[in-house]
Design a protein that fits this description.
- This protein has 270 residues and is of the alpha+beta class.
- 47% of the residues lie in helices and 16% in strands.
- It has two domains: 63 residues, Phosphorylase Kinase, domain 1; 190 residues, Aminoglycoside phosphotransferase (APH), C-terminal lobe (Aminoglycoside 3'-phosphotransferase, Chain: A, domain 2, Alpha-Beta Complex), CATH 3.90.1200.10.
- A five-stranded antiparallel β-sheet has the order 1-2-3-5-4, with helices on one face. Strands 6-9 form a two-stranded antiparallel sheet. It has a two-stranded antiparallel ribbon with strand order 7-8.
- A hairpin with a 2-residue loop joins β4 and β5.
- It is globular and about 65 Å long.
Length: 270
């Protein structure tokens, strides 16, 4: 289907796509030229149809040579914004963050989604690590299991909308198939160590620094209480640290490389 006519106001923009209002009850996520994440995102949202934990996919369209997804509109702030506005809600929101992820991990992924382990292997290759650290991370990855659960790939408070009586997980260009522990470990990495987004205010940066360990702790407690067969989280975390370096976030590089170096030394002395 090809869409014509004026777009509504822009609601948000990222590296891969822009989001516009589309009528009163939908939004249009319009992917930028050269980005193909709409295919995987459509697959993930189709799997989640009827669960209530993600916006409903209404249509896949073309506009001006770009592919777009028409999605149910969920009116509410993302959880990161809510934490900035109402930090006293941290404990409850951390629990909500974990509960929504647990619900997502109960969904079986389709076979055409990428495998988490293969994706991480490729990202370690692109991370620019010293050979001994890349080899160490890959040895850890080789011992980790495959799985068949739906994984978001970038699950954090900025990708969760909180509306009245509803939590909705958004931004699905990188879903994968794997064990829940792999996705949980990526979230732990982001909660503990991810650098604030460019342009974050000094107040926001101070709030993140003060509250992130508490947020990670309460999120982890709720997630582990509801998870079944949660194993190898520390190993998955180590692999995700190596893969994260492929994203080129210079303010994180020394810290993450140091984490890997210390882990490799501990392993060598056992």
């Amino acid at each position: 289907m090809t869409l014509a006519g004026p777009l509504g106001p822009m609601l948000g923009a990222g590296r891969e796509a822009e989001v516009y209002a589309w009528g009163d009850t939908a939004v249009l996520k319009l992917y930028r030229p050269g980005f193909g994440g709409h295919r995987a995102e459509a697959t993930a949202l189709t799997l989640l149809n009827g669960t209530g934990i993600a916006p409903t996919l209404l249509d896949v369209v073309e506009r001006d040579g770009r592919t777009g997804l028409v999605l149910e509109r969920v009116d509410g702030p993302d959880m990161l914004t809510l934490l900035n506005r109402r930090p006293w809600r941290l404990r409850g929101l951390a629990g909500t963050l974990a509960t929504a992820q647990l619900a997502m991990h109960r969904v079986r992924a389709s076979a055409d989604l990428p495998d988490v382990r293969r994706r991480l292997d490729a990202r370690i290759d692109d991370a620019g690590l010293p050979p001994h650290l890349a080899s160490f991370a890959k040895q850890v990855l080789d011992r980790l299991p495959d799985g068949d659960r739906l994984c978001h790939g970038d699950y954090h408070p900025g990708n969760v909308l909180v509306a009245a009586g509803r939590t909705a997980i958004i931004d699905w260009p990188n879903p994968a198939r794997g064990v829940p522990a792999a996705d949980h470990a990526r979230t732990l990495l982001l909660l503990r160590w991810a650098a604030p987004l460019p342009g974050a205010s000094p107040f926001s940066r101070a709030l993140i620094a003060a509250g992130r360990s508490m947020l990670a702790r309460h999120y982890t407690r709720t997630y582990r209480r509801g998870a079944t067969q949660l194993r190898d989280v520390d190993s998955w975390l180590l692999v995700h640290v190596a893969a994260r370096l492929s994203e080129g976030i210079e303010t994180e590089r020394d810290m993450l490389t140091g984490f890997l170096t210390r882990a490799a030394r501990r392993t060598a002395t056992r």
